Amino acid sequence: MSKGHVVIVGAGIIGQAHALTAQEAGWTVTLLERDGRPLGASVRNFGTLWPIGCTFGPEREQALFGLGRWQEVAAAAGFTLRPGGSLSLAHRAEAWAVLQEFATQNRSDVEFELLEPAAIARRFPAARLPGLQGALFSPAETVVHSPSALTALAALLQARGVVVHFGTPVVKVYDNAVETSTGQRFSFDHLLIAAGDEMRLLFPEELAAAHLSRCRLQMMRTVPQPAGFDLGTIMVSDLTLCHYPAFRDCPSTAKLRARLTAELPQHLAWGVHVIAAQHPDGSLVLGDSHEYADDFAPDSRADVEELILDALRQFVSVPDLRVAARWHGTYLKSTVGQTQVILQPRPRVTMVTAMGGLGMTLSWGLARQTVQSWGTTTA
Ligand SMILES: Cc1cc2nc3c(=O)[nH]c(=O)nc-3n(C[C@H](O)[C@H](O)[C@H](O)COP(=O)(O)OP(=O)(O)OC[C@H]3O[C@@H](n4cnc5c(N)ncnc54)[C@H](O)[C@@H]3O)c2cc1C
């Protein structure tokens, strides 16, 4: 017997993860998506499942739980994951110090490996050796091709009995029902709003008060690399250590940031840090930059793209850097350092947003938490 009716707004990864989790917990679920298919941040990202970017404690636990869920769901929905871990390369002494501090502070959790340059050269021949001080290898990180995964997951939801309506914008929320742009109403016992960076339609006042900023990220994909080139893992470098909260508490992070600000002021000004992730067709997904505003100019910036490629060339040798595709992604980010924002604008209405650059990683853990909080129906 159903526990009641859950309505979910938004078929990005947050909405879909909640839909599957709620369906498995015994709820009847309807998922409403304004576009004809998912087109938001969830299909514009690197597709890296990235526990190493999460702070140790509940957030990392959520990420590791999410990794397990991604594996189960990939098997059930028929898409593939590309395990292989991540390699954080240090080309500055300060970055090497951050990695050593990070590995020491968190030694009990998983087997991080600190690698000297000779070992890096043997195991990861694409890593650039000049100036290399060392690297941290972490085995957990995994790549998923987000557009295929989101499509396959939506099909799995439908096969499991979730009612999915694409092309169905929700324009109004009542106490126990939502209304779509065509006037159709769906009543709910619980409503989950996972509308990504949409701030202006549903509960705009609550979102405006939640200290959020829109962030635009510039991304690209290279042509498939020549046969035989295997990045071997997800690679990042010094700039990334200043980006994720996981490294915030390492004593040397501030020194690294000061040095990078002096040496690479334009990269810092545009929020450039570089992740290189190889997908099954051999292409590399590369990015990104971080630009904060309410609205953005429509153009991609060639100078920002060059900053990303310049940073990439400093830590990895890629045979063919011709760009096959460029795009932007946007999300909401907390301006006061929260890694997820969960609002309850009304009883039985939950809004989830501002997962920043970790939404793919944290979605399943967050969905577990939300669905557990519903217990049984309150109707
Ligand atoms: C460039 C980039 C790189 C990233 N890289 C990573 C990464 O490697 N690893 C990682 O973990 N995370 C990454 N992220 C973050 C991650 O992609 C996001 O946190 C996550 O996708 C957010 O999911 P979401 O479902 O909240 O939003 P979205 O995917 O944006 O989905 C929101 C959905 O809601 C729909 N919607 C909005 N309003 C309505 C309405 N009124 N009615 C109906 N539907 C509506 C939209 O059409 C959209 O489909 C990255 C993000 C970007 C932009």
Can you put this structure into words, describing what you see?
This protein is of the alpha+beta class. It folds into two domains: 5-47 and 147-201 and 338-374, 3-Layer(bba) Sandwich (FAD/NAD(P)-binding domain); 86-139 and 212-334, D-Amino Acid Oxidase, subunit A, domain 2 (D-Amino Acid Oxidase, Chain A, domain 2, 2-Layer Sandwich). 31% of the residues lie in helices and 26% in strands. The protein has helices spanning 13-24, 58-77, 93-105, 117-123, 146-159, 204-208, 238-241, 253-263, 265-269, 302-313, 359-374, and strands spanning 5-9, 28-32, 48-49, 81-83, 86-90, 113-115, 134-138, 142-144, 163-165, 170-173, 177-180, 185-187, 190-193, 212-222, 234-236, 275-278, 284-287, 291-293, 323-334, 341-346, 349-353. The strands form four sheets. Strands 5, 6, 7, 14, 15, 16, 17, 18 and 19 form a nine-stranded mixed β-sheet that branches. Strands 9-2-1-13-21-20 form a six-stranded mixed β-sheet, covered by helices on one side. Strands 3-8-4 form a three-stranded antiparallel β-sheet. A hairpin with a 3-residue loop joins strand 10 (170-173) and strand 11. Helix 1 (13-24) packs parallel to helix 5. The relative contact order is 0.21. The model has no long low-confidence stretch (mean pLDDT 95).
Task: Please give a quick description of this structure.
This protein is an alpha+beta fold and 379 residues long. It is built from eleven helices and 21 strands. Bound molecules: flavin-adenine dinucleotide.
The second-level CATH architecture of the largest domain is: 2-Layer Sandwich
Runs in which pLDDT lies below 50 for 5 or more consecutive residues are: none
Indicate the multimeric state.
single chain
Structural class: alpha+beta
> What name goes with the CATH superfamily of the largest domain?
D-Amino Acid Oxidase, subunit A, domain 2
Shape: globular
Bound molecules: flavin-adenine dinucleotide
Largest sheet: 9 strands, mixed
- Helicity range of the residues? 25-40%
Task: State the CATH topology of the largest domain.
Answer: D-Amino Acid Oxidase, Chain A, domain 2
CA(first)-CA(last) distance: 15 Å
Per CATH, the class of the largest domain reads: Alpha Beta
Helix segment tally: 11
Query: In total, how many beta strands?
Result: 21
Q: Mean of the pLDDT scores?
A: 95
Radius of gyration: 21 Å
Count of the separate structural domains: 2
